[in-house]
Amino acid sequence: MVAVLLERLAVSLRDAGIPYMIIGGQAVLIYGEPRITKDIDVTLGVDVDRMADVLAVARGLSLAPLVDPVEFAKKTRVLPCQDQSIGLRVDFVFSFSAYEKEALSRTRAIRIGTTDVFYASPEDVVIHKIVAGRPRDLEDVRGILLKNPSIDATYIRRWLEDFSTSLGEPVLARFEEVRASTAQ
């Protein structure tokens, strides 16, 4: 059921001219250790000024917003929706920062059914997970690093150094700690 929704989501976003990448747990399933995930996180290459287009995509997929779409997205840059038939949550994340613009240019097409679905690169999934920093996210990073030994650590370090400065959090050190734990 998730695969069917991912296919339909990819086609709808493509038809609406909205660049995107699948991040979060669904991307971890591609690059890391299998785990249960009950949602689809989608970073969009558009800002909230394209809300009408995103809502049209959501309606076409029978995804119901869980909040007041405009007000919530203006505050959080996220539009949480739910598939009414299977209860799966889909979070649309509005963005167009320099980092996300570059990440969107690095997506990987993964064939699901008859459709190419665009996933964040393993490096960008690591960056998202390290910034989030929850224990589950750090375990996801460990699995991705173990399964992808040729991952571009230089690219990851460049963005995490920027995030360490802008967020005032030691996210680069967090990455180095997780990375060191995979070498043991």
Main attributes?
Beta Polymerase, domain 2; alpha+beta; 54% helix; 5-stranded mixed sheet; 184 residues; 9 helices; two-stranded antiparallel ribbon
Describe this structure in words.
With 184 residues, the protein is α+β, with helices and mostly antiparallel strands. 54% of the residues lie in helices and 19% in strands. It contains 9 helices and 7 strands; from the N terminus they run αβαβαβαββαββαααα. The protein has helices spanning 2-15, 24-31, 51-60, 69-76, 98-105, 122-132, 135-147, 153-167, 171-182; strands at 20-23, 39-44, 63-65, 78-83, 89-94, 108-112, 115-119. The mean pLDDT is 94.
Quickly describe the structure.
The protein is α+β, with helices and mostly antiparallel strands and 184 residues long. 54% of the residues lie in helices and 19% in strands. Helix 6 runs antiparallel to helix 7 (135-147) and helix 7 (135-147) crosses helix 9 (171-182).
Text of the CATH class of the largest domain: Alpha Beta
Largest beta-sheet details = 5 strands, mixed
Amino-to-carboxy terminus distance:
38 Å
As laid out across the biggest beta sheet, the strand order is 1-2-5-4-3
The name of the CATH topology of the largest domain is Beta Polymerase, domain 2
The CATH architecture term of the largest domain is 2-Layer Sandwich
Low-confidence stretches: none
Q: How helix-rich are the residues, as a percent range?
A: 40-55%
Rg calculated over all Cα atoms: 16 Å
- Total strand segments: 7
Morphology call: globular
Output the structural class: alpha+beta
Tally of helical runs:
9
Report the average pLDDT across residues. 94
Instruction: Note the beta-strand portion.
Output: 15-25%
Order of helices and strands: HEHEHEHEEHEEHHHH
